[in-house]
Amino acid sequence: MYCEWSADEIHIDKLEIFAHHGVYPEERREGQTFYVNAVLYLDIGEAGRSDDLEQTVDYGAVCHFVTDWMGNNTCSLLEAVACRLAEAILLKYKMLSGIDLEIVKPYAPVRLPFRGLSVRVRRSWHRAYVGVGSNVGDRHAHIKAAVEALRANPLVELRQISDMIVTKPYGGVQQEDFVNGVLELDTLLEPRQLLRLLQEIEKEEGRTRTIHWGPRTLDLDILFFDRLVTADRDLTIPHPDMENRRFVLEPLCNLAPYLRHPATGKTVSALLRELEPGESR
Question: Which of these is catalytic: 14, 92, 105, 144?
């Protein structure tokens, strides 16, 4: 599961597999040889000290898993093989923090001299904190539905749910009080993929975007994503102005008081202390 990328590695080189992947019908029908190269990232310190297989990942079992997956699935694109297999390995072997995976197609139908074509991907678990809020209808039911939708997604592991607090609305629009909280999760999704998932869940709960800072059945915001700092037209991480929002900092502090803001270096508890009592600008 998620941790900072480990310096420890297990390498699998040139695992030969016969499988049925390819754009052309004859490739999928007749099959061909592929080679798989992988770097598995995990902390093997305890295994090194104890000499216990249970403290590491059995690379023989990984090889058999990869061989079975390649044989039991069919994709047109090499890109799809690499992406889907990388996710499948990380979901199967939760001790891994990440993987570099290369799928080599040595006999691709190119009709030119070459040594092989390949696709290489890097995938890892990410730690994200998501703010959740509602002030329309059954507020707790909307939040519960969001939690269940995240739990149902195979690429998301919901780790912790903060205490829920009732807060006054933010932004000056007259409306009902909010129920707010924070979710801690590990995910194989990248930031924009997670954003799309959260927006789909909001839509399922009847979220409309008609009034800025207005009433909403469900509000899901990415607060932190690993140590990422990015600003784009539709996605800013860490969430903008969160350091001035008690309804964010208080439940976040409930989960991760010593988590540091990647831009300012301040802990969540320090940011909360800096707000005046009762203040949420």
Answer: 105
